């Protein structure tokens, strides 16, 4: 082969891995994937579970996750049509990672909040 | 105690853990913390390593990480003053997590890109 294989490099702005990082770091994507860890959910169930997400953001997040192959969308031919969302096999590989993120965020919350108070009140 | 202790809940928009998630999910924060994994760095070294970050974003990211107690900032009384950044002990607890994020993003890049192509070219 003439062209050399290049390792993905997160530090390079042109590397696709940086876009992937943006997806898996995005707050709404994280919350959607964690909610789907339980199993298939309808749009309305996701909207209810994830406090504060707008309809626009939820729709956009689901579309992004579907495009990235992390979530599947199934339309059932009922009246009105029922739309289900589920994790794909690829999406499922994210779960251990996102559970660790969740555990870190909840487990270190007190330390982060203490640091903020100290920063904000320093002379 | 009258007030009951409440478990941090990522799904609740008012819970601080959601803000913490935003920090540890943020692309520039992730790249700064990973760069500091090697050891102390100056501002200019961070700017050089992290391709595509603007001065404004890097300054803002470092300030946020410092405020959250993840990064320490040391000013040396030289002329011109030298400013060093390093991970704190709390910041260091993020490293296994962010290394996993990095590994996922680089390791699954081909699958995500294939899914995108399929999504974008479907009838």
From TrEMBL, chains A, B:
GO MF entry, a single one: DNA binding
Keywords, ordered alphabetically: DNA-binding, Transcription, Transcription regulation
Keyword DNA-binding tagged: yes
Presence of keyword Transcription regulation: yes
Domain HTH hxlR-type: 15-113
InterPro entries, per database record: HTH_HxlR, WH-like_DNA-bd_sf, WH_DNA-bd_sf
Entry protein name: Transcriptional regulator
Organism classification: Bacteria, Bacillati, Actinomycetota, Actinomycetes, Micromonosporales
